[in-house]
């Protein structure tokens, strides 16, 4: 199977080389890798140039956007810029962060998933982060059938069917919900252990704290699902302020009548899907 990789990169000099090196070591090499240098002010571009000069399938794209590190729109905008350089001659498409290290067989196994499981639309492994003792530990705050936004692979059919990635916080949740709305499966492989070099959310601007609640509003969760989800997030993060920020963001978006990311029909499916998940967990 053939695949493309797009890597949005903003000031990633501390990690990018390790990420690119892990790609060059893949047992199933990519057809093309587009590294989007998104308004970097450090040595990110220099590192990209080192690889483009020696690895023919790695390509650089310079873009200029905001230097504020907000989750969602900035990274997806960079991704979309890279997507414009690619054609439709691929089997699956990968959105990859610049701060990860992949195992050498990551994409070979991903290709096998898509090849053997025709209903799978989104696939990936699990993230491991170093603790204070420098031990690599599983860090997967979402459900085990969720693929982290740092390393998401989409079949071409699924990616086109869901209309690509949404330019907003919550893009890496709504994509899976829409995939399932359209009959695709989300598949995770716990043997694919990805090293995530930077803790989730580190470096985000302070303005990002309300965006999670706004995302829940835009996905048409409704108040009660947002309430339950926010309680869970606060519990897992051991931070009560997460609960307050989420609800504040949700109510603020509701007051401003922000645009929805999904249609009413999709929203109805999403709420039903979420309630089933909640009820199944309460019964176990």
TrEMBL record:
InterPro entries: Glyco_trans_2-like (IPR001173), Nucleotide-diphossugar_trans (IPR029044). The keyword Cell wall biogenesis/degradation does not apply. Its EC number is 2.4.-.-. It comes from the Bacteria. One of its GO terms (molecular function) is glycosyltransferase activity. Keywords: Glycosyltransferase, Transferase. Pfam families: Glycos_transf_2. Residues 5-149 form the Glycosyltransferase 2-like domain. Belongs to the glycosyltransferase 2 family. This is Glycosyltransferase family 2 protein.
């Amino acid at each position: 199977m053939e695949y493309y990789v797009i890597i949005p990169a903003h000031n990633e000099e501390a990690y990018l080389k390790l990420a690119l090196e892990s790609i060059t070591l893949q047992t199933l090499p990519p057809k093309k890798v587009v590294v989007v240098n998104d308004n970097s002010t450090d040595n990110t571009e220099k590192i990209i140039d080192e690889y483009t000069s020696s690895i023919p399938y790695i390509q650089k794209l310079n873009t200029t956007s905001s230097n504020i590190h907000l989750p969602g729109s900035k990274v997806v905008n960079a991704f979309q810029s890279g997507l414009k350089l690619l054609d439709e001659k691929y089997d699956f498409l990968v959105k990859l962060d610049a701060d990860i290290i992949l195992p050498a067989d990551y994409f070979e196994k991903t290709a096998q998933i898509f090849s053997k499981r025709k209903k799978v639309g989104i696939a990936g492994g699990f993230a491991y982060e170093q603790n204070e003792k420098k031990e690599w530990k599983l860090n997967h705050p979402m459900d085990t059938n969720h693929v982290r936004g740092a390393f998401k692979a989409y079949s071409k059919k699924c990616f086109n069917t869901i209309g690509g990635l949404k330019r907003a916080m919550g893009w890496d949740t709504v994509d899976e919900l829409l995939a399932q709305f359209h009959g695709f499966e989300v598949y995770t492989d716990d043997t694919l252990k990805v090293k995530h070099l930077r803790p989730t959310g580190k470096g985000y601007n302070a303005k990002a704290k309300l965006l999670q609640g706004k995302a829940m509003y835009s996905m048409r969760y409704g108040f009660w699902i947002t309430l339950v989800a926010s309680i869970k997030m606060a519990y897992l993060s051991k931070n009560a302020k997460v609960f307050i920020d989420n609800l504040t963001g949700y109510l603020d978006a509701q007051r401003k009548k922000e645009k929805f990311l999904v249609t009413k029909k999709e929203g109805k499916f999403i709420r039903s899907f979420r309630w089933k998940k909640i009820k199944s967990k309460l019964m176990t």
